[in-house]
Amino acid sequence: MTSMVVVVSIALIGLVGALALMINRLQADGILGYIVRFIGSLGEIIQLIVVPLSGIIGAFGLASIGTTLTRGALREVSIPTSHILGAVLGALAGAVLMGIVATIGMSAAWLGLLTPLTAAALASPVLPQLYRRFIKNNPRPMGTERFLLSVLSWIGALIAFITAYNVLDVSQALVEGVLPPRLVVASIAGFDVYLYVAEAMLIGAALALITGALQGTRANFGIGSVLYNITRTILNALRSIEPLIMGLVFVIWVGIGPFAGVLALALHSIASLGKLYSEQIETIDSGPIEALQSTGANRLQTIVYAVVPQIIPSYIAFTMYRWDINVRMSTIIGFVGGGGIGFLLQQQINLLRYRDAGVAVLAIAIVVSILDYASAAIRERYI
What we know:
The chain is an all-alpha fold. It folds into 3 domains: 1-77; 80-216, no CATH class; 241-383, MetI-like fold. The protein is 81% helix and 2% strand. The chain has a two-stranded antiparallel ribbon. The chain is globular, with a radius of gyration of 26 Å.
């Protein structure tokens, strides 16, 4: 049922994007033209994200099916065989993951930093696992044990990061802006394997082999924790960049116009709201959840009837507040070429038409005031 809902949701998102692109082809002037261009910008954003989003969801779906089919057989093998299979599967998974990341890193200089970061993520559990298996003797207090494991994890990640950084010569890409050389070392099924990618795959295979050998196939893999940490890192990175800087980058990337401003505000809004939304979920009352679970409710029913009612009021408040921020920030984004009334205001100032510029400022103030009253009415109604 959940899979069907996800597939239908992706299909609907794609249809909405296609409809928005069709509307963008209409010829209109004035306010109607602005609305048409805005809808077209939303369609272009959907077109950009729907394919990778579908690929990610499909990959996790296939992984879930494979896990369900092989879980029983992998848990029934002997302990030595479990560790051997864990090493083999870990090496394959690590090599594939590092190969994909390295291929992405070859497309832009600053993306090369993703490869050592991925190596650090693969190496972070190695030292804690070695400690638990070979060194741990005397029991320690829970706080001390957790701190020690955290320190070992960071040490392993730092060693792997420095090693991958030096072996792959990432500094050449970051400092000098030189992309890795495309030296072909092999060709598999028509795909060229470059030396840079092969080295990254070897590093990933070695790190994941150690982790898989220590854990075996009987160990539980906390995919939720991994996804949480990856998502949190990405959102933190996006939130650290101001929308004005994002606007400058997207103006260079997609050109001057509203689309660049929409992309800048959308990315920063996703990062900011993602943090607020996640913190709200983490602080909800567990009482209703436990009550529903005790009656036999499944996970989807628990989320719908115990989690959603607790987070909806806060989500509305956060969203309206971010909407108000974006309305005011869109004016500044327009000054760097992000389109909108800010771009028109800059043009009027440059042409010394201060009367027209004053009208634009007055229009901005009126729009902000109207949206403030609208958001207050919505919050009063639903919160």
